Structure formats: C-alpha cells, structure tokens
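User: As part of a screening pipeline, I want to sanity-check one entry by hand. Below is the sequence and the SMILES for magnesium ion. Please return the complex as structure tokens so I can compare it with the automated output.
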Amino acid sequence: QDATLTIESWRAEDQAIWDDVLIPAFEASHPGIQVDFAPTAPTEYNAALNARLDGGTAGDLIVCRPFDGSLALYQRGHLADISDLDGLDNFPDFAKAAWQTDDASASFCVPMASVIHGFIYNADAFAELGIEEPGTVEEFFAVLDTIQQDGTYTPLAIGSADQWEAATMAYTNIGPTYWNGEEGRQALIDGSAKFTDPQYVRPFEVMERWADYMGRAFQAQGYTDSQNLFTLGRAAIYPTGSWEIGGFNDQAFFEMGAFPPPVEAEGDTCYISDHTDIGIGMNTATDNPEAARAFLEWIASAEFAQLYTNALPGFFSLSNAQFEVEDPLAQEMISWREECESTIRVAHQILSRGEPNTWNNMWTVSANVFNDAATPAEAAAALQQGLEAWYEPQQN
Amino acid sequence: MSDLVLKDVRKAYGEARVIHGIDLDIRDGEFVVFVGPSGCGKSTLLRMIAGLETVTGGDVIIGGEKVNDIVPADRGIAMVFQSYALYPHKDVYGNMAFALRHAGEDKAVIDERVKKAAEILGLEALLKRKPKELSGGQRQRVAIGRAIVRDPEIFLFDEPLSNLDAALRVQMRVEILRLHQRLKTTMIYVTHDQVEAMTLADRIVVLRDGRVEQVGTPLELYHHPCNRFVAGFIGSPKMNFLAIDPIDDGRRVRYRQSAPIDLHVKTRSGAVPTEIGIRPEHVRLVEPGKGAFDGTVFVVERLGGETFLHVDFGHEEPFVVKADGGVQLRSGDVVGLVFPAETLHLFDAEGVAFEQTERHALLG
Amino acid sequence: MSDLVLKDVRKAYGEARVIHGIDLDIRDGEFVVFVGPSGCGKSTLLRMIAGLETVTGGDVIIGGEKVNDIVPADRGIAMVFQSYALYPHKDVYGNMAFALRHAGEDKAVIDERVKKAAEILGLEALLKRKPKELSGGQRQRVAIGRAIVRDPEIFLFDEPLSNLDAALRVQMRVEILRLHQRLKTTMIYVTHDQVEAMTLADRIVVLRDGRVEQVGTPLELYHHPCNRFVAGFIGSPKMNFLAIDPIDDGRRVRYRQSAPIDLHVKTRSGAVPTEIGIRPEHVRLVEPGKGAFDGTVFVVERLGGETFLHVDFGHEEPFVVKADGGVQLRSGDVVGLVFPAETLHLFDAEGVAFEQTERHALLG
Amino acid sequence: MTNIASTGRARAGRARGLSTKAAVHTVLLGYTIIAIFPVILVILNSFKNRRGIFSDPLGLPRGETFSMEGYATVLTQGDFATYFANSIIVTVSALFLILLLGAMAAHALAEYRFRLNTLLGIYLILGIMVPIRLGTVAILELMVDLNLVNTLLALILVYTAQGLPVAVFILTEFMRTLSRDIKDCARVDGLSEYRIFFEVVVPLIRPVLATVAVFSMIPIWNDLWFPLILASGDATKTVTLGVQQFIGQYTVNWSAVLASLSIAILPVLGLYALFSRQLIAGITSGAVKG
Amino acid sequence: MSEATTEQEKTAREAKPPKRRKRRVGGGWHIFVFIAPAVLIYTIFSIYPLVESLRLSLFDGLDDGSAVWNGLGNYVTLLFNPTWATQFWNALWNNLILFFIHMVVQNPIGLLLAALLSLAPRFGSTYRTLIFIPTLLSVVVVGFIWELILSPLWGVSETLLGAVGLAWLYQPWLGLESTALTTVSLISVWQYVGIPMMLIYAALLSIPDELIDAARVDGLNGWWIFWKVKLPLILPTLGIVAILTYIGNFTASFDLIYSIQGALGAPNYSTDVMGTLLFRTFFGQQLQIGDIHMGATIASMMFFIILIGVTIYLVLVQRRLQRYEM
Ligand SMILES: Nc1ncnc2c1ncn2[C@@H]1O[C@H](COP(=O)(O)OP(=O)(O)OP(=O)(O)O)[C@@H](O)[C@H]1O
Ligand SMILES: Nc1ncnc2c1ncn2[C@@H]1O[C@H](COP(=O)(O)OP(=O)(O)OP(=O)(O)O)[C@@H](O)[C@H]1O
Ligand SMILES: [Mg+2]
Ligand SMILES: [Mg+2]
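Assistant: Here is the complex for your manual check:
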C-alpha cells in the first residue's frame, strides 16, 4: 500500500537528521510508505498542534511531549491507544510511564529518548586552571571560586532571562540530589511532602549561591546567549542537559567534559535527572493507521535506538535493546545511569495538571531566586501555595 | 418636443421638508434661471429634475412623459456642475467622450461630436490635456462641452460660473448665452449672481424656502416685483426701502414730515402701502432743498463710468444712489433727493407689492 | 509717522525672479490698492512688506526705518487674509485678543481694545462664538477686528473679500472704506476686483509681471491710462479696442474706409497711433448710417438699470456698448455707433498711450 | 504700541533661523540613526558567521568573521524562492481584496443612505478590537470544510477578513469627503452605480488606497501564525514561516535567520516604496478625518 | 454661426431616432452588491470564528474535550479566583503601563518628528522613509536585534554608552523586574513610532499656510505657533492616535513581548500582558494545557475593556475635540 506519513514535531533542528538518516532507513525497510518530517518552531508547537488536531489537519504521527501534555491529547481522543503495539515491550516501565494513563492501563506514545541533566565544562579551561571535576557541592563551589579568581572565564554559563533554564538546568538538575530522586518526587505526588520541606528548599539555597558566579548582568542573559558564551570559550561550566552535545560538538573548538550534579557529601548516592523527553504517537484521525503503526513499531526497534542515539548525541534511546553510543561526551553522560539513581523532572507528572501550573511557577520562582527577587524559602512557599491551590493530596 | 413640467413637486429629507410643492412650466428652448437665497432649494430642485434626487411628491414631466422613476441618463438631460466635476484621470477628449463611449456610440460619431463641441467652445487645442493642466475657465468649458456632446434636450446648470473669477465669469456668461442662441435647447440655470440671472434668463424663477416667489422675465421682475423679497433680491445695488405713512387711504404717502407724494397704484381692499422702494438708478439728485429730502453724502464710490453715492438722511439705512461717472460730489456734500413717483414701488405691511398703474411706460 | 517706502524691492525664488525692482512711496494714512493679473506678484509684494517673505534685493522702509530684517510682529503692521485665517479653536474674542495676549498685554487693556474693535465692527454679540459658527461676512469682520486691535500703523489686506458672495462684498467694501475714514491708518489692499479697486483706493498701483505699470488715483487711471494694458485692465466692462490707420502723421486716424476722425493728442516724435480704445460707456448709439460705423446687436444683456449691448460690426472682437436700462433694442437690430473724439484713447504700436489734450475736461 | 525692534535683535533672529535649521536636522538625523542603526546591525551581521556575530556584533564583516554562509543556507535549504513567491502572492492578493472590497463597502456606506448604514458601519469595525488569532480553530475547521487547508487562498481569505475593518474605517471617512458632483455627473452620463465606483471613485481615491495598503501590508507580510496553522506545507510556506526553520528548540542558526530576515525586508520595502509616493496625500485626506 | 446652421442642428436633433427604452431607477441592489462581499468575507472569516471562540467563555471544558454550560462561571473565576485574578489584574495593569509609556513616549516623539518634518527640511522624505522602516520589520528581527543590543554579554549597548561616557549607566534592562516592561515598551515605541508620525505629519500638512502667516504677524515664533496654533488644530488626530495606541496596546503588543520575553512575561510576570496571558491560557504553554474556555473568557474581557475604552473616548473625548474646518 502507498502511504505518506507526516510527523509533527517541535524539533526543527532535527530536520536534517530525519531527512538524511532516519527516514531513508525506515523507507528502505518499508517500501510503499513515505514519511515527511514537518516540524514547527518549539514556541508555537503546542498551540499549532492543538489547533491542527481540533481542525483535523494534524499529521499522522505526533511527537509527544512527556506526561500531561500528551495525556490530555489522549483523553481528548487525538492520540490513539497503542498499548498493543509489539515493540512497546522493549521499554522499561519508567520509560513507558511518561506516556501512559495514570493507572498505566493504556499507552499512547512510544518512548523515543530521554535527556540527562548535568554539567558540561570546558576541559581546556579546567586543564589550564589546574582544576578537576568536582564531586561534592563544596568542591563545586571551590572550583567556581578558582575560576572566578582567575577571571579569564565566566564560571557558570547560565542566565535567567528565559526563565526555563533556571528551572530545568538548575533546580531540577541539582534538586534530585537533595530530595532523593524518585522518592522525593513521589512524596510530593502523594502529598506526604511539601515544597516547603527542607529537601526542596535546599536546591534553591544552592542556586542562590550560583548567582555570584554567573555572568555579569545574567538577568538579561538568554539561553542562546549562554550557549554562545560557552561555545565561544568564554565560560567554564555550563549547567545543562545532554541535548546540547550535538550542537556543541559543532560549535565548540575546545575539549569538553561532563560531570553529574555534585552530591552533598563524599560517598552520597548521586541522583540524575534522566528525563523522558520525547515520545511519538499516532493521530487517531490518520488515514493510514497501518502504516503509522508500522512506523511506530520501527521506532520501538533496536535499529532505531542505535540510529537515533548516535544521530542525535545526547538524546538517549529509552529502549532496553543494546546500542552503542559513539560520542564520548554522550558516552560519559549515559554512563551516569550506572552510577547514579535516575529520576525525572519533578513537576512534570501530575503536579502540573492544574492552575496555577507548577512547572510555569517553577520557571518563575527559580529565576526569581537567581535574580534575588525571592529567597529560597519564599520560592518554595510560592510553589507550595500554587500547588495547594488545586492539588487535593496537598490540601490538608 | 421637450417641455418640462413640474407638478406640485415636493421633497423632504426624512422629516425635513425642503421643497413645498412647486408648479412650473418650462417651454422647449426656453432659458430659465433659478435664483434665491442660499439653502432655498435651488440645487435640490435641479437635482430632482435631473433624477439625482428622488421626488417625494408630485411629478416631473419631460416631453409629456412622467420621468419620476427614469434614471438620469435616460431623461435627455445634461448637467453642468459648479465644481466642474471633471474626471481628473481622463483628458479633455476622454472627459467629453465619456458618456458617449459608455453608451456604446460609434467611434466615428463620438469623434465628430467631440470635435464639434470642442470647436464651439474653442477647446480644439486642449483635447489632450488633463483637467489639472487647464485654467478655471477652460475647465468650465470642458464641463459644458461634456454636456453638449450628449446632445441633451435640457441643459441643467448648477452655479456653473461661481468658481471663476469676475473677468472670466463675464466671458463665460456671454459664451453660454451664445450657446443657447445657437443650440436653442432648453436650459435651466441656477445662480446666485444678479447679473447672470438678468442677462441670461428668458424667465427667472425666484425661490424662497422651497417655494416659488415669482416667475417672470428679468424685466418683469425688475419693474414689477410682486413683493418686497423679490424687489430686494433682484437688482444691484439693491433697492432702497423706506417706511412711510400712508395718507388719504393709501393713495398718497409721506415720509416723516415730507410733503405728500402722489401715487399711481391700484389699491387693494384692506391694504395700505407702508413702505416704498426705489432703485438706486431711479433716485434723482438735485440741489439741496429742492428735493423730497436732503441728505449727506458720506461715501462716494467712483467706478469710472458710474458713481455710487451713499447718502445719509437720518433714515435707518443710508440710501444708495447711482449717478454719473463724472458727478462732482464728494463725501460730506449735502444733496437733495428726488424720488420720481412712477419709479416707486409700494408694499403693504405683509410686503406684498401694489401694482403701479404708470409703470408700463418704463418697460423696454 | 508711518510712511512706507519701497526702494528697488526685488524678489526671486531661487532662479525664478518674481519681483523686478519696485519703487513705491506710500504716505501715512493713504489707501493704496494693488491690482494686476493673477500671478503678477501682488501677494508676494504684500508679504514682503509684512515680513512674511524675505526681500531678495532693495529695501522696505517703514516710518524711515529699514525693516528688511525685522520680524513681522515688530513692523507695526496687521494683515487680513483672503481665507480669513481665523484660529478655528478660539472664539471671536480669543481670536482678536490673541496677538495682544501673546505680547503679554494687560488684561484690562486687551479687554478694552477688543471691545472697542468689536463695537466698530458690530461684533459685540458674537464674541463667544467660534469661527465655524459665523457667516462669511462675520468671519471677515473678525479677521479685520483682529487686525484693528493690534492698532497697527499699516493695514495689509490680501484679497480680503474674494471669498464672500457678491452682496456681502458690496457691504464689506463700504465697511472697509468707513473704517479707513475712521482710523485714518495707512492701508494697502490687494484685489482682483475692479469695483473694489476703483471705490476704495486713494491710489491704485497696477502691477504686471513683477513691475509697476502705473500708479495713480482711480480716475487718473480710468481717464489717463498710460498704456494699453492699464487701459484694458481698469474699467468694467473693459475698454473696446480697434486697430486704426493713422493719417496726416497721426493727427487724424481712420478705421478701414471710415471718414477720418480728428484727434486732440500731443504727438510724440517717432510714434503714430495705431489703435484706439473707447470705453463701453462712451460709445453713443445713433440711427444706422448716422454714426461712424453701423453694427448688428447680437447680444443684449439687460441688467435693469442698464443694458450691455454686444455689437458686431465685422471687427475681430465685438464691441460692448453700455446703454440705458430702458433701451429698446433687440438682438439683430442694426445701430450706428459714434465714438466721441474726446473720449478716445490712442495707443502706438508698443501700446503706449498718447496724452489727450482735451481729456481733462472730463475729470470729476 | 508699535515698537520696531532694533536691528541687532533682528539679526539675532536670523541667526536663530540658521541654528533652528541645524537643530531640526540634528534631531531628525539623530532619530533616523536610532531608527535604522539596529536595522543596519541586522544587515551587517547577516554577513558574518556566528562567532563574528557574537564576539563583535558592532564590527564590520572582516576576514575571519565574514561569511555568506547564512545566505548560502537560506538559498540552499528549503525553497526560499517559493516562499518568497508565496509571501508576495498572499500579501498582494490580500491587499487587493482588502482594498477592493473595503473600498466597495466604504463607498456604499458613504454614498448611499439606507437603513442599516450606521449599524453596518459599526459592525464592520468591531473586528479591530479582538485579535483574530482567537478564532483560529473555527477558521481552521472552516478551511477544512472548504478544502482550503494548505492553500494560499486560505491565508488570503483570513488576511482579507482581518484587514477589512481598518480599511473600511479609513476609506469611509475619506469617501465622505469626495465630491458628490462628480459622481452625479457620471450618473447623468449614464454610468451604472458599479461603473461609477470603478471608473470614477477608484481613480479618485488612489492615494488613500495606498495608505491603507501600507497599513494593512505590514501585519500580513510579517504574520507567522496563520501560515503555520493554515498553510505550513512546503509548497505554501511563506517567508516568515520559512525563517522559522532556522530557529530550533535548543539551537538557532543565527546567520541563516539574519540572512533570511535581511532578504525578507526587501519586498516589503519595495511595496512600501511603491505606495509611499501616494502616501502623504492619502493620509492627509483619509485617516485624519476620523 | 449663421441662422442656417442652427436651424439645421435643430432639425437634426429633432429628427433623431427614438431613444431606446428608458431605464427605471433600480432598487437598492447595488448597495447590496457593494457591501455584501466585504460583509460576507468579514463575517465568515473573522466575526464567526471570533464569536465561536468567545462563546466558549460560557462553557467549561471536561477532560475529554467536551464542554458543559457554565454561564458566567468563568468570568467569576477569572475575576475572583486568586490564581486567575492576580494574573489578570497584573496583565491588565501592565497593559495600562504599556499604554501609558506609548502615550508619553511614542506619541510625543511621533509628534516631534512630524512637527520637524512639517517644516519641510531638505531630505524630509528620506528621513520619513528611514524612520518608517522599523515599522515594516517583523518582530522576529526586532526581538533578536534588541536582545543582542541590550544583552550584557555582547556589549553593544555598553560600547555605545561608553562612547558617550555613560557606560556606568548600563543595566540588564530586559532582565530586571523594575525595568523590563519599560524596556520592552521602548522597543515597541522604536518600532511603531512611524505610525503616529505619519498620521500627525499628514494632519500638520493640512493646516493652511495663511493661518501660520497670521500667527507670525500676530508676533508668534515657530515654537509658539506650534503650541498655540498647530497643536490645538491637530488635537482630533492626536485623539485618533491615542485610541489606536490603546487598541494596539492590547492586540498588537503581544507579538513583541512574546518574542522577547516569552509566554510567561519574564521576569516574574513583570511583562505579562493580556495578550500573553490570553495566548498561554488559550493555546497552552509547556505543561500547561490550553484551556480554550478560560482563554475565551480572557479574550472577551479584553474585548470589553477595549470597547469600554473606545466608548469612553467616543463619548467623552471625541466630542470635545472638535474638528475644525480649515
Ligand atoms: N441630504 C440632505 N439632507 C437633509 N437636508 C438637506 C440635504 N440636502 C440638502 N438639504 C437641505 O435642503 C435645503 C435646500 O438645499 P439646496 O442645496 O437645494 O439649496 P440651494 O438653494 O442650492 O443653496 P445654495 O445656494 O447654497 O447652493 C437646505 O436647507 C439644505 O440644508
Ligand atoms: N514659493 C514660491 N516659489 C516659486 N515661485 C513662487 C512662489 N510663490 C509665488 N511664486 C510665483 O511668484 C509669482 C507671483 O505670485 P503671487 O502669489 O505674488 O501672485 P499674485 O499676484 O498674488 O496672484 P493672485 O492674484 O493669483 O493671488 C507667481 O508667478 C508665482 O508662481
Ligand atoms: Mg446649491
Ligand atoms: Mg495673491
């Protein structure tokens, strides 16, 4: 059968990879099916996708944001139930959880990749200054001090203008170390812990200390500014996620290294945010359900895992299948899965289902902590207050 | 035949009644001028004849046919507007040919008619020009030319010369008169201008507040205005008025303590003259003490060929007297004024004129 | 004292030379009218006197002081514009008080002056009105009032009445004349209108193409135009011209085959008269055959008090003859024309007039 | 009361005239620089590589920073010629419809007295007050029903609807000031009401049409949203949407973005130049007489 | 022109063949034809979708995407639920500030430029075109370039300020709660100043020269003429500029803020306006699911606020700003 499948995605920068690597590989094994990758700029993706779905013009395959964003689409009948898809068994439960109903009774997206948070650094600069990857929080600040004193490099390449980095690359990056990853996350969901508890306030306190090491006038420093600052060799440490690897490999002209979020004390268990970030599902309104399912099955395959992870270093396939990671930096980061406990971003499941939206709140308050517009306690209180406003388990 | 008959024509804009029932009979080939103060409904009436304004009541009949519902283009009329209303994007030829082209007339016919109209109006050299490249008078001529080519049965002019300067106005006025003599088409002409009205009209229609005050030849209106309004409106400088005391049941009158003046009027039962009117050109100047009154000249306006004297004799408004260009008086001189009885106009308290028995001798 | 002297005043806009050196001497209290065809530089000259336009060459001297570089407000002048130029956002009082207020004049003084001007112009009842609530004549009066309150030494008027309708124009004209009689201020007045020029001026300045053609009293210009241009420009309807053949070295002339006409002129060496001019009011009508020529009346314009006859006698342009209101002629009638020798104007081939020896008798 | 000023004061006056002129130019020039400096910066930086842009944004493109890579990307990646054609087709067609339909409606509102006149006038300008973007879903559904998704026509229709209120508003005000004589004259000449509109009214309002065109053109040319929703297919992409492909989630190809935006300025500038010759006369009589 | 020819003409005219049937005045069909296409397109593609959307404000959404009647419930939520109310009033307040800044910066600058241009300086039309260019730019360009200029990292503004010895003045204006809104407003002013400039310029041109001459004779210099004569005369235009600014501030300001400060109106909602609140509520933002019902409620409120503003203007202001015949 001849079918053309269109993929909706927010990953405009992946166009070349899909066109040159992934789609040819799929089409080679699936004659008669053609695939078209049609991304939308990330700022407009949700709005445009919703409009297209409501209007019935959305693509056959839909790249899914994790958790509630996609759950809503499923509930409104836009994403097909694919619980019976063969390849789905290839994935661990935690991976599938991002695209399942709360009771795990139905799956609606095939997990594609997760991203791992941590810190990338300028290895040349570290060598030049004679410093090593820090293991504990205090070592981390000692390293920052050294860099600061030297003065050549901005110690931390992060700003608060765009807000989301503060939440994503700072708070949920280092936070799991304090709230013990999944344990802390679940505690919030079941109402046994509050954001005002110390383990959720402490990361803010650490972030408050970061401010001294961030570029001057970081309040107006946007995400791309930080990227450029780092890749142009003007900053030493870049708090981030594995998704940068691809771009940085192209842009940075120096050696890079990576280290996971430092622990409080030597020997503590380390926690990483291994965030299930991308899945792909099927539009219920597709004209080619068979072809679409065939495509999803291919996505679930080991072949895709291998191709994808290496084509997009830093986006790690969630598949159980064995695959080789070729990029050294990516290798380093994925290796943390062995040493540390994994968890996902704390606000992403269930907690951001109401208004005010916890994740939005987290952007704002995290940035406020950087900007000295809120104390850690105030920031945590704001989060808690917002959550309590609508989330029943937190309301007693 | 293209007689125009208005039968009890009325017009109201919503509540506002503007024309209150006008009856008028205009013969084929006649040149009729509408005059009247601003806002009296001249334009409205003209536009109703043209079909540009619907008729609220009564009938407009052209050549025996009721045209109330006929579109303007099919009424056999052509209209010339005050603002020329040329099509700015077409040249002179295009402006004149426009209606004919639109009617699908033959190219050759159009060309012939336009050429002929251009010749009549002396526009041959300007056919390729755009309106903005023309002088005021030339534009006006094009506007007329545009009407001529349509070969209408009735020409309508709405203050066609009022945007021109005085000298051009005189010239165009004569041109329009010659045009009428040549084409012998019915023409209806609205104007504010005394001189235009007097010189162009076969008959003048004086309008006030949407009603006809008087219809007649220029000289009829000049010599026999039927009321004070018409008397004051026709003639320039305008008639002088003087309140008087009727004596002898209105067969004679006097002003203040002056000697009684004999009148030759048809008396009407129940009406006595209370005001006389006399035109500036009919007042005679005599030695002080020899006239009906003495007055002081306080402004002398010398136009060369004639002189206007403004004479104050204690009356509310000064009198204007028209004298010779060579008159030797100066401001401050005292003169005697004579009002020849046969030139006097008499009005009763309502302003209605009395018919003078000796006036006809004056008619030319 | 506020004599105004122009000394070789010139104006050029870039390359375009508009005023070519004008010398003029205007006495304190004089009423001077500038006339001339459109575009001849009347407004430009006035605006240079006002200081609204810089002087390219020569001097403007007011009261003995050279004012070329003085700002308009400090020249002691006030100006009245054609389009009134009232401040639409201020009421009548505000318009009149504007300049004084701006000059920081005392409130009481302002009030007194405005009140007085309003009284002179009969505007007392309108002081609270905005310009748009005024009629044309009232606006014009406010514009004049605004000039009066400034108590200027020189009034400048640039076609102040040309936006008014004919009747109002007559009225305002007289008002301006009385104003001049009352204030005795120097007034300089630009107009297109014959009648205004003739009736208002102590002296008229005739301009053509940025040059002075003639300066003189209205009657001097009427009776002794120095050239054909002035002769044709002054007087309405305008002078009739006729090309003639000089005989006897120019002491007598004849038109085609007519009998020779005796002239009373100061001959000038090297110049012979080639054209005669005669005003419509000087042509006498006689029985056919009894005059110099016979002609056919082809248009009769009856104004009531007078009649204009357009007479064609095979000459290039028809003659206009001014006759009585009661004249009995009709279109098509043949008449004889008499040109009284003492009323004739004579021009040589350059258009320069000959001085008539018997003309002075005509002066009033 | 006349006090003729001393010549000294007058000369000071003239000097002030000169310095006034200088001041006028200083302010205008100053603001002009403020207005175009950033634009120049965009164009300047479009000729640099990323390092050039960010390490020395003010510098001229030079040796190691000069790069046409942005333009190369734009010209090779995606089909920018098509995008440009699409943008121009959409903008020009929508402008045409806005001007035509807007002028027709304005003519009707200004020229004829009819019962719903005022009401319709108000109705037609209500749309200024709510961003049409809100109606996206309904519009999309409509387009689906009309089978217009991924056609330029869909964009043209939406932009026309979006631009009509302002156009009708400005044009109506202006039409009221048009000479009535000239239309009447055409009536007497036998023209139908339609031909009066097209042959007499339209030529007279050309300047105002230019004004409306300029005001309507900007939001259409620069709109990103409706192309995204209604015509995101490759064949129907507009320039603004095409530029988006260089803006990713985590990486932005600045050279390409700047290059494409620099090119994208040209057609609007061209259109503006086309209309602006008529612009001032237009605004004078149109927009101002609100 | 002898008698013979005129007679001939006359007979020729009378001998003319009978005219074709005379047309009668039609009904009002042409009015319909003129107005229908605009009304039709406008109704179908603008009013209908908007009404469809605004109608949603009276319903409440369920998880499965269906809706139930909620009366004015959403409005109550928006105005009285602390979560919504804070955002709503904050956005409205920011809008008002935005409006205020445009009124005191954009329009006076536009007025100043227009006033200078109306003096007909040399190169006037060049200035006019150049100053209008930013108005033609897309917000993507405007956002990028101003972020670059104002960014602390790349030093454009510091260099520029340093050039005039004011480097110490530099602040990360876009990043500070206290200055972000003002900064964004000023960027918007920069972009759109061309529009009031053009409108006012045109109004100034329509003031007759004679009036200015009269004022000069009355002793006013250029400055006073501007204040006492020109300005009062263009007040109606300034009124229109004000109302356009007011409307634009609600509808058009969104794009720029969204492009520069993101959907949350960073930092800390200090640049959040009705437009961004509406957009993220209606269409969603990251994990926030779009809520078309609350979105529609906000949009309706926005509509009412604009309507109130316009009505106040029409009733209170416009009537006093009379238009003068000039
Ligand atoms: N469309 C209209 N609606 C209401 N009243 C109108 C309308 N047109 C004209 N009028 C009124 O009808 C009356 C007659 O107007 P018309 O234009 O016929 O006067 P006119 O005699 O031509 O005046 P003018 O000499 O000033 O041209 C005026 O009082 C005018 O206000
Ligand atoms: N700003 C200018 N630049 C160039 N030429 C000008 C300017 N102003 C006036 N002129 C020219 O100067 C000449 C005189 O103009 P001016 O306005 O003084 O004439 P006028 O006698 O007042 O005419 P009108 O009777 O039509 O008012 C005209 O030929 C005109 O074209
Ligand atoms: Mg009229
Ligand atoms: Mg002039």
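Points to compare against the pipeline: The two ends of chain B are 30 Å apart (CA to CA). The first helix of chain B runs from residue 42 to 50.
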